[in-house]
Structures are given as C-alpha cells and as structure tokens.
Fold each of these.
Amino acid sequence: MGRPMGGSSGGSGRSSGGGGFRPSRPSGSSGGGRPMGGGSHSDRPRHDAPRGRGPSGYDRLPRGGIPGYGAPPPPPPRRDYGYGRGYNRPPRKSGCVTNIFATVVAGIIVVFAALSVFSRSFLSCVTCGKCGNDRNNSGYNDPAEPGNNNNAVQNVVKVTKNKPSVKFKSDCVVDETGWFEDTKALGRNLEFVYEKLGIQPYVVFVKYNSSYATDEKRQEYCDKWYDEHIKDEDTFLAMYFSEKGEDEVGLFKFCIGEKAKTVGDKITGLFEQGINEYWFNENLSLDEVISSAFKYTSNHVIVQ
C-alpha cells in the first residue's frame, strides 16, 4: 500500500511528519488490525489464586489424601527362593555398586547440563547490549531484533540531537483501544529515544470514530490533541487511528513539536520501516511492536 501524503501542519511551526502511513503487510504474513500475538493480561495464567487452592484454581487434596484413594500399594508377597518359607533372597552386592555408579554418572550429567545452560544465558546477556530501561523492574520484554521483512529498506540517517527543555515523561502512551498490555511499562521503556535523540516519544491509539473518516480530519485531530495535552515543543507524537473492521489496518499520523521537528521529520521514515518490520509478527504483543519500532528507528540514526 502506498504511503498517503499530505495533511496539514500543526500550530506553532509544528510538522505533520510527511502525512502518515498505514502498516504495510510483508509477503506471506497474516492478520491485520491488531492485536494478534502476545495476549492480554486476562489471557495469562492466574498467579493470584485464593489460599486453599492450587495454582490453577482447583481445590487441593486434603492432607493424607482421600480415604481409600491414593494410598500406597501393599508390599509384594514374599517369595521362597530356597532360603526358607517366606524368606526373600538377599540383594546382590554388585547391584548396590551399580546403583551408586549410576547415581554418580547422572549427577555429572546434570552438572554439565546446568553449566551449559548457564554459559549460554550468560554470554547472551553479555553480548546482547539491551539491558537497562527498567528491564528488571517492569517485567517488560526487550524489543525484538529485526527480522526478514523485505519491505523494510534499512538505511541510516544523520541528525543533530535536540536539546530538550523538559525532562522525560514516562506517562507517554495513551490507549483508547484496549490493545496494550501495560502502557506504563511501555512508556518507561521508551526513555532510550529521549536519551539518544533528545525528543519526547508519545504514542496514542485512537478507537474507531466515524468523525475521523478522512486523512485530513485525522491530521486535524492529531494536531488538536497535541495542543490540548502536550505543553512542550520537544515531542514526537505518533497517533494511530483504528478502523471499523477488526482486520482492517489503521493509519498512523504524526504531530512533531517545533523544536523536535529537525529530528522528527528525518525519523518518520525509519519509524514506518520499524512498524512494517514488526506489525504483522504474531509472536509479538502490541507493546513489543511499538518498542521494537522505536528501537529500530534509534538503531538507524547517527547522532552528529
């Protein structure tokens, strides 16, 4: 799908970032509107089961088991091996040695397996370079790595870092659709954009409204939303307008602050490529799609 151009610019010298775009479907992908993968909190296994119940919510068995059920089987009948009636053959000494040897070998195998898993995890953590950004505190997954989407043309742009007049705001994700899992965690994990580029990322997902049926109306709403909710000119606002049908792909619009537009106008194309890279990945939640798209953008920017 071609990228719709046009759209009015916001007030106070702001930019519309080129007019916006719709996520482009890679060949062989499925799905459309979102969310497709990741699931929501309501789909996850419960970990808050009331006391007296098992992890899955079922009643636990009473201590000692149910009478007549679950009791250990009776001992096998004693056999006569020629040592007298009812007298069991004594165990062979070689069997005891064999059991000890098997236990030692099994222990060695377990130790080597544990060391192998630990070494792979350790090396992966050391080399991935993605630690931080509230990773350990929010429970939020790291952004995905770029995949094999042939529609994404990887390029690099050079920008001069903006000098923001305000501190980073973590409350920068607004969800009217109910598609996100944790907007607060996602907002905290977008701080890397502010740190590298000096602009405040802001993401708003708008539920379907027939009043915003045209590109012009959507851009007007995006500019108006910036005026009413954002009090600085350092913000890069990406607003998604959902469609009526669940499988219809919506439209992204932008409103970029006057100070942020020298950077924002150059990264909208990269952000589009990042969205196209991850939008149709059914294994990613929408939170991960947005974070990964910003990570893709940041990784393809050289700050002068």
Note: Confidence is low (pLDDT under 50) at residues 1-11, 40-71, 83-87, 122-152.
Amino acid sequence: MQEVLIEARGPSLYLVINRPALRNAFNENVINLIAAGVRQAQASSEIRAIVLTGAGDRAFCAGGDLSAADADAPFSVDPARPRNFVIDLFKLIEECELPVIARINGHALAGGLGLVCACDLAIAADHARFGVPEVKIGLFPMMIMPYLMRIVPPRRLMQMCMTGSLITASEAAILGLINEAVPASELDVALDRLLEGIASASPTAQRLGKHGLHAMRDMTIRQAWEFAELMLPMMAATEDAKEGFAAFRQKRAPVWTGK
C-alpha cells in the first residue's frame, strides 16, 4: 500500500497520508513522500496550490508512528547527519512558493499538529481535535514549538503542553491554529471555495507575498519597514502587476502569466 497518495486535481496537487489504520501517523518514508510531492508541485507550471490531508475521517495525522519496534525513530537523530527529517519537511514547506493548505479531516495531534502549523492555510472538519499529548509519553513538543509560540497565546499553550489536553476545531479556529471549522459534510465545499480564490489571483503576487510574510515575521518592525519599501516597487514591476493594473482600468478579468 502506498503510504502517501499524490494526485493532481485541476490546478491543485493533493497529498494524502494513507495510513488510516495507524491514524495516519508518519514515519520517515511518509515524510519523504510528502516532501517529494511538494517538490513535484513546485516543478509544475500547472499547479497553483498543494493540499495536504489524511485518509478516512478519523485522523488527519496522529504524529510520529510509535507502533514500530524503533519507536524513538520519529525523534532520533543520525549522529552523522544531525538534522531531523520532519524539520527538513517544515523548511521545505516554508520555502515552497505555492500555498500549502491543510485539509483536516480528523484529529491532528503532536507532529500532526506540526504539519497543520507548517501549512499556510488550514480548514478542518468540526469533529477534529487538536493537541500536543507528548507529555503523556515523557516528551515535550519541541520540534513544533516555534510554530505554536507564534500562534497560541502563552498561557493556553502552556496548558496544552503541560496537560496534553485536546481542543476542539472551534477553539482551534478562535486561537488561529486553523482558518475555519466546518461540518465534515461541508469540508470539501469550503476547501474548493478557498482553492478557487487562490486560482483566481496572481501567482506572482502569492509567490512574492508568501516570501515576504515569512521574511518579515522574523524581523524587527524597523527591518520589516525597510524590507517592504524594497519589495513593493519590485512587485509593481512584475508582468502580473502590470496586467492587474490594466485589467482594473479596463474593467475586465486579468490574465495572469505568473511572471
């Protein structure tokens, strides 16, 4: 059985973690297959967005697979290569020029919540639950902490991490962990609406905008001002911006070139 299904659906590439019996828990092969899918999407001139989801309706991803004999594998480091494969995927998604969307079909726990946080946008079925239960097995969610600290208020984050308690999809939306929580029957309708909005907009603006957002997030406000002063005129000089201006003046739909 292929552990990650990769399928192009129109201008979107779907990456489906296909381990429902294990609540779509990941191992190194799963992470590498997701990474391969991200690279495939980036190499295509037809793909405008990447959708990451899980098989079934029980779990989006329950984190690292602890069922194997080498249960510490999701957390171990090769001494000859002191980098974790999960962190490598997070970096790849952050640097990906396409918007990456989490379609959360079920629970997102531990490293699975990290995958949600790594994505640019997220829509969840309202039965999904979110949490970092690592403390219950003697660990702490270190690898996804940089994401969580940017999104979740400090005291709520401390409570989640110290108790391992789960929150609902509605609570996750309030905290900003996800964009929207909808009934499971409406999940794909909401996702399609989001994908249509992405496909109708300038790919150049999205590409440069994602780069800018990630860059400015790590800057002081003065550094961000200086960066923005350089970015805006550069964006205005692109073919897409010129086409957008012309279409606005001529009251017509723009035809994007992505340049």
Note: The chain has two domains: 4-200, 203-250.
Amino acid sequence: MDADYIEYGKGNTIVKAWVKGVPIEDDAVAQALRTAKMPFVFKHVALMPDAHVGIGATVGTVIATKGAVVPAAVGVDIGCGMIAVQTTLTAEDLPDNLNRLRLSLEESIPVGQAKHSRSTPESNRAAKAFEKLHPRLKEFMKKTGFETDVDNCAKQVGTLGGGNHFVEVCRDQNDSVWVVLHSGSRGVGNLLGRYFIDKAKSRMAKELIQLEDPNLAYLSEGYQDYRAYLEAVMWAQDYAAQNRQTMLQNLLLKTGWSTSGDIVNCHHNYISAENHFGEDVMVTRKGAVRASKGMRGIIPGSMGVGTFIVEGLGDPESFESCSHGAGRKMSRSAARNKIALSDHIEATKHVECRKDEGIIDESPAAYKDLSAVMAAQKTLVKPIAKLEPIICIKG
C-alpha cells in the first residue's frame, strides 16, 4: 500500500512530506533536507502540506530532536496560534450592518501596531491577565540579563498584531456563529526569539561549528543557554495563549455573545516535550499543530476562504501533527506585485473586511488551495466543522 506521504532524502537524512496534490517549492524541500541532516534530529523531519520556505527551518515543519534545539526553527513569533469557540448565535442573529459590527469589534481589540493605552474594561482585563505572567518574566530577566519594556508587554496582552494575524466571525455548516482568532506572543516573543537566535549563532562561532545554513544554529542540552531558552519559550507560549484568551474574552464581553461548547486554543509555532516511537524528545513545530488522537485543532485558510475545526488522528509518522493553515504560495512581495486590488475585492466580496492595497499580500490568491491541503492530510486529521467567514479583521 502506498504511503500517504512523499519521502525525500536517504540514509539518516529523511523528510516525510504530506504534500500529495499540493504544490511545494523545491527550495522548501531542500531546506527541510538541510534540517534533517542535523545530527540531533530524531528519526526524520515531517513536512506538512502547507509547507513553504522560512528562515532557518521550513514553515510547516515538525522536528523532533534529542540533545539540542534550534531557536530559529521556532522563530520569532513564539507561541503563535489559534483560538476558536462556537457561540449560541446563528447567522440570522447578526446585525444587517456588518461594517459597523466590524468597527465595533476593532474597538475592543487593538490591531496592527496598536496596544491598550487607556483605562478601559478591555485594557484593565489585559493588565490583570499580565499580572499572572509578570513574576516569571521578572525573574527570567534578573537571571539572564534579557531586557524588554515590561509596560509594553502588559499593554500588548489582548492585541492582535499585523501580518497574517486575524479575527474572524464565521458560520458553520449548521449556520451557528463562531469566533476565530489568530495571534501570538507579540513584541516580547519577537525579542526573545531574536535574543536566543543570536545566542545560538554566538555558540556556533565560539565552538567553530560551521553550518550549511547559519540560521540552523542550535543550543545544546547541558548548557545554561539551552535551559534558559526552554524557560523563555514556555513563558512566551503561555503569554501567547493568554493573549488570545484575553482578546476572545474582550470580544465576547463587548458583543454580549454567549458561547456553546469548549474553547479550542492551540499553538502552531512552539516547542513541546513529548514521547514518540517510545523515546522522550523535544518537538519543534514551526507552522504545525499537534494532532494527537482525539485532540482538537484549528486549520485556517486565507481571508475569504474560512477555517476547519479538526480532530487529530494521531499519525505517528507525522509526530502526531497537521498543518497550521493553507500555506503561502506567493511571498508577500510577489503577492503585492501580482494581485490586483480588483481581484482581491472580487475574492472577498462575500466577507466584511478591508479591501485596500495595504492588505493585498493577505489576499486569498497568495495562499494554497485549502481543500487540497486538507485532502493531503486526510490521515492526520478529520474535519469536524467547516467555518465560512462573515467578518474578517486584519491588522
């Protein structure tokens, strides 16, 4: 029986890629193979169907390691991920003026570079959420010398950011309204990521280790920087999860909407201590979601396309993982050059969202076909809800 993945490489350098029926760049495969060559990589590298070239490691990569971690494989948006919840509303309960509703939601969730700056119910809830996180950050800064603007960290809890981060109001196949949100650890996660990427590169220079790609610089177990990095990552992941939780809470309180069912809150840029093939390993997912058997996850497409709520099937060869979205098929610069504003407006005509030049790099045409991505990973997850976008908020 044919495998559900395509295998690249040979010997101890193996990449297993769930990309059947999905376009993938040769450069992305080559990058994944460079990662798989690293001596501390366990078994093989798993490549998800949304994979595309990243910095250091391919976006859409799952890397199990023993004895070392690669900070650039997590990246600088540590803990980036998704949160989603079903409400008690149906689409008919939403107001006719969706533009007014979108602008109202943006009042409770600062987007782009904005942050909470005045005493409002939303900013007060954000400050309270940060109080739980602050002691660990304060102790970490004292131990390591890492510096950041703590006040800014507090004010960015409950904020969206820019790029591909978004808030959506969607409807499922039963016409129930859902809220879906994508964001991460904001400015402090970016600083922590860059801080430890530099630490890893300094370690390589000090030990005269030359790498095929300098961005694969690693931190070895047993060193103080390794322990400090794991501590920093776990804190930033908690910050990211709390950031999403706070945004969702502020939106629900702003609208007065009630929820129906459990909240799904999952990372897709992160590190986790796990057991695979009977061995304890550190798993880095760069643009991938854990999909253990029965575990719920979220796989969004582009703005205008919608989102799948999925349940993991626990495939061992993927290290129990799935894609984190549709995946880019155009770089941001290519999208801005190739996609006409009129095409973006047509592709998002059914969605209340921004329809201006500043959002072209996030237009649906810049992304892979989400249906093909889902078909390529049918052995990794099963869809339990398909959400169609009604409102999409971008930074």
Note: The chain has a mean pLDDT of 96.
